[in-house]
Amino acid sequence: MFKFKHSIVALIVGILVCPSWAEQTTLPVPAPTSTLPATVDEEVEVELKDGLIVHGLLVLPADQKSALPVVLLLHALGKDRDGMVDLADALAGAGMAALAIDLRGHGASQMTSSMEVFSYAVARGAKLRQLVDDQRQVLAHLSGHPRLNLGRLGLVGIAEGGQVASALAGRLPEVKGLVIVDPVAPAPGFHPDRDLGSYGQRPALIICSAVPRSKVQADVLVNYGTGERQVFCTDTYESGDDLIMPPSPAVEEIAQWLADKLAVQRF
C-alpha cells in the first residue's frame, strides 16, 4: 500500500513538474534594450605642410554633445596609437575627448617614397622637434570641430612622446594638464628645464616605474617649473623599449587627474 501511494505521488509530481503531454507555455523573452555605446570614434586625417598625412583616432563620450576638453596622446618612438586606446577610452568615459595620434613615421602616418625616412639614429633631436610642429598643425586643423574645446587642452606622452608633450606644453598656454609617462633622458635639442619652466605654474603628473632610471628622471622633472608636480610610480611594468601603453594602474589615475585639471563637467 505504501508503495502504491508513493507511486501515485510521484506520478502527480511528474505531471506538475514536466507535463510532457500537457500544453507547453512559453514565457515571453524581453526584447534586448538598445543602449548607446559609452564612446564614439572618429578617424582623423591631417595633411601637414610637407604633404605628410598624419592619422589619428578621436574618441568621444557618446552621452555629451557640448564642446569637450581635449587630451592629445603621444606614443613612444617605435610604437603607434594602438597602445593608447585603453587610455583614450578611459578619458572619454571621464568626459573628455581623446586624440591618439600616429606620430610622423609611425603606424598609418608613414612617409612616402619621396620623403626622408624617419630615423632615430640620424638627427634624432631634429626629428623629435619636427614632431612638436606636427602636433601644432594637428591641433590647428581640429580647431573648427564642433565638439572640441581646444581652450582646455591636456597632453599625455610616453617616453620620447613625453618630451614632445613637454615642449608643446611650454609653447601652448591652453594646455591645462601635462602627463609624462616613463620619462627618459632628454634627446639632443630638447630642454625639459626650459620647457617645463615655460609651462610655469600649470600642473604636471609624472608616471614612473620602479626601474631606477625612470625614478631618477621623474625626480629631475619635478624640480622644473613652479607649479604642482606630482609623481605616481608603479612596479607593474618595466620601463624602456617594451613600453607600449600606460600601465593599467596608471590609466585610471591619469583619467581622474586630467578630469580634475581640465575642469570636466558631466551632464
Task: Describe the overall structure.
The protein contains 7 helices and 8 strands, in the order H-E-E-E-H-E-H-E-H-E-H-E-H-E-H. It is α/β, with parallel strands linked by helices and 267 residues long. The chain has one domain: 3-Layer(aba) Sandwich (Rossmann fold). It has an 8-stranded mixed beta sheet with strand order 1-2-4-3-5-6-7-8, with helices on both faces. Helix 4 links the parallel strand 5 and strand 6. The chain is globular, with a radius of gyration of 27 Å.
Write the layout of secondary structure elements.
Blueprint: H1 2-17, E1 39-47, E2 53-61, E3 68-74, H2 85-93, E4 97-101, H3 124-141, E5 148-158, H4 160-171, E6 175-181, H5 192-199, E7 204-209, H6 212-221, E8 229-234, H7 248-261
Parallel strand pairs: 3-4, 3-5, 5-6, 6-7, 7-8
Antiparallel strand pairs: 1-2, 2-4
